[in-house]
Amino acid sequence: MSRIGKMPIVLPQGTKLELVGGEVRVAGPKGSLKRPFLEGLTLNFAGDIITVQRNSEDKRTRSFHGLMRTLISNMVDGVSKGFERKLEIVGIGYRAELQGSNVVFYLGYSHPITFILPQGITAQIEKQTAVTIQGIDKELLGQTAAKMRGLRKPDVYKNKGVKYAGEVLRKKAGKSGKK
Hints:
By secondary structure, this protein is an alpha+beta fold. It folds into 2 domains: 9-80, Ribosomal protein L6 (Outer Surface Protein A, domain 3); 83-164, Alpha-Beta Complex (Outer Surface Protein A, domain 3). 20% of the residues lie in helices and 38% in strands. The strands form 4 sheets. A 4-stranded antiparallel beta sheet has the order 11-12-7-13, with helices on one face. The longest helix has 22 residues, at 59-80. The chain is elongated. The termini are far apart.
């Protein structure tokens, strides 16, 4: 039995989960999400506690048991609390600003980069070098953060670029000259 798959999912107050036609739908105070539900698994409802069980012991079903439970748990957490990811911009003259629902990055290129936020993701800029993105879909939020980081990946020689908050960059020594 999967250690993660057998853990129960507790629904917070005001959150609804239902299985409709092979699709899991979760609704809560922050919004609603839906995702296809894999065959070979079943959802057991016992009040506010939900468990994911598998019907067979074939390899595909066993391998997706823990994954499906985690995806549903992330959906429940997203519609009840939401997720956020913080990015830091390091470098002289590097900054970001919010223009409507887009984030404009100035990252040392000859032109500013306009990043269009996907539907369901919002951004806040506390300082010009700190960007916080928020959303209810953890997968979309992580993908958006990775795309923002990819605009100017952190350079290990200069310690400049867009990085995740808390990410530790080890500065590498450059080439040593011939003596």
